Amino acid sequence: MTVDGSLVLHGLNIVYELATLTLTTLGLAIVFGLLGVMNMAHGEFVMLGAYCVVTVQGWGWPLPTAFPLAVVVCGALGWAVERWLIRPLYARPFDTLLATWALAMLMRKTVEAIWGKGYQTLDTPLAQPLMLGATAYPAYRLGLIVLVALLLVAIGLWWRRSTAGLRVRAMTGNPVLAQALGIDTRRLASRTFVVGVVLAGAAGVLLAPLVRVEPGIGVDYLLDAFFVLVVGGLGSLGGLLGGVGAIGGTQAVVSSIAGQTSGYAVVLVLSILFLWLKPDGLLARR
């Protein structure tokens, strides 16, 4: 491969890493950024989506059927969790953290009991390369990058121009006033939580063909998403993108130079510095 080809490949890998980080952070950005709930089970919902792919493969169904399965499973579980676990604890952030941490362990152990602790392999025909000039790159990764870009545009338009987005902004800005104006904040909060966990499950479905699926994969996704929100700030799409750029870009560059462990260490130090010096992040909601 030529030097130019190597640069293109390296650049595509960085863009892919940023896209996957955005995808796995979106759900937590909604739940934590808008509702103030630090959902410690976020990574487990990503894991649950990945195991939906494992399930449909075991049943002999087409892989795309994992999407509706993940929506139903994560949506139903998310609704039940918000209704009976999160709702009584909205005014007690530390208690919600402990409750969702316990939920994460329960989900992980349940998956271990059903599928075991080992890695699951997926037979997928999604690894065909696509030629970009003289550079071959997996078509599925390119499709994932495009999908994430379109998803961000759709969320931005929904947030700014839809009636539902206006109601969510009102609820997060001043819930008491929003309720006085006739907005059912309880139902809206429940739907927002469900959307967040469904996005996490959808991320798991999309990433399952690219990662090693096992019960512990959710922990890494939770930590990466948390670092992104710490650096970028809560409650804004700009904060999400800023955090993804700072965390994903730093980790990708440092890892390529000094190894993956060094990249993770630098990201950890960067997050601690932001918590100390700029706790609101780069572009927090005002």
From TrEMBL:
One example of a Gene Ontology biological process annotation: amino acid transport
GO MF annotations in UniProt: transmembrane transporter activity
Bilayer-crossing regions: 14-38, 67-86, 139-159, 193-213, 225-249, 261-277
InterPro entries: ABC_transp_permease, BCAA_transport_permease
Compartment(s): Cell membrane
Record flagged with keyword Transport: yes
Membrane topology note: Multi-pass membrane protein
UniProt superkingdom: Bacteria
Nucleotide-binding recorded as keyword: no
Entry GO terms, CC: plasma membrane
Keyword field: Amino-acid transport, Cell membrane, Membrane, Transmembrane, Transmembrane helix, Transport
A matching Pfam family: BPD_transp_2
Family, as annotated: Belongs to the binding-protein-dependent transport system permease family. LivHM subfamily.
Protein name: Amino acid/amide ABC transporter membrane protein 1 (HAAT family)
Organism ancestry: Bacteria, Pseudomonadati, Pseudomonadota, Betaproteobacteria, Burkholderiales
